[in-house]
Each structure stands twice: as C-alpha cells, then as structure tokens.
Amino acid sequence: GQLDATCHAFVGETVVLPCTTTPVGELTLSKSMLYWQIGTEKLVHFFQNGQDSLKGQDKKFHGRTSLFLDQMKHGNLSLKISNVQLWDNAEYSCIYRETENHQTKKSTIKLNVSAPPRIEEPPSPSEQNQIPSGSPMDVPCLAVLPLSFLLLVPLGLWHL
C-alpha cells in the first residue's frame, strides 16, 4: 500500500510513529487488537484485550516500544520507539482490528534512521598550536573579538 507518513530520527533518539483512527465515541480496547509490524514477519508491538501482549515481539524491539495507553481509546494508536537504531530503518504497518465486526484499519509509516551528527570535540591546548593560521577554526574568534572591543570603547566613553 501507499505510505501514510514518513518519520526521521537519529540513532539514540526516541521517535513516535503516528497512527490515528477517528472513532465514533471511544474505542473499545478490550474488544480490539493493534499490531505494529514490519512486513508480515516482524512483530514490533502487539496490543490485545486492553493490554500489551509482547510474547511474539521481535527481540530487537524488546523494552523499546510503547503505546499511549491513556490516549488509545480516543484513537491515538501511535507507537513510541526509544533508543532508535539503524536497523529500525523500515516501513512499519499499524493494523487496528475490532474483534466483533472484524473492521480493520491499516496505515503504513516509513522510518528513516540516520547516524547521529558528529559533534566536534574542542581541541586540547596542546593541539591548538598545530592548527594552521587561517583555518576555519580560528576565524570566528578573530571576527568576534575586534567587534566586541569596538563596542566596548564607545560604551565606556559614554559613561564618562
């Protein structure tokens, strides 16, 4: 089927895959099932009879998925995945089925996972001498100091 949404997350982040249904009144969670899965094989999260049922859950997702239990009866079937990993990159299906009338709703959400952006460590004092002058690292310092100096001089005179 077609994608209903695409989500982006970095490794280590928490992401919410959106899935909502518009119930007439409140959903009867005790008489419904909610599957979150990848393809037809990988069970990411399963909810039935008003509670999580994670026996068949794929081991890679163990302890990292949760539903918004307080909001489910109002139609929020979104799945929260914490500590996202590169292998979570996939198309997820949110399948909601009512047991009595077998009415089924399905949506598909693509999750794109990227490696976290690298945070540059500031160089230790011994390394600073090795940076050639004119490198991008010391340009902002040079630009900031004269500007603040020029601003301070007129302000200082103003108070005389």
From TrEMBL:
GO terms for molecular function: signaling receptor binding. SUPFAM superfamilies: Immunoglobulin (SSF48726). InterPro entries: Ig-like_dom, Ig-like_dom_sf, Ig-like_fold, Ig_sub, Ig_V-set, IgSF_BTN/MOG. It is found in: Membrane. Its main location: membrane. The keyword Glycoprotein applies. Keywords: Disulfide bond, Glycoprotein, Immunoglobulin domain, Membrane, Signal. Residues 12-110 form the Ig-like domain. It comes from the Eukaryota. Residues 112-134 are annotated as: Disordered. GO terms for biological process: regulation of cytokine production; regulation of leukocyte cell-cell adhesion; regulation of T cell activation; T cell receptor signaling pathway. GO terms for cellular component: external side of plasma membrane. PANTHER family: BUTYROPHILIN (PTHR24100), SELECTION AND UPKEEP OF INTRAEPITHELIAL T-CELLS PROTEIN 10-RELATED (PTHR24100:SF148). This is VTCN1 inhibitor. It comes from Hylia prasina (green hylia). The lineage of its organism: Eukaryota, Metazoa, Chordata, Craniata, Vertebrata.
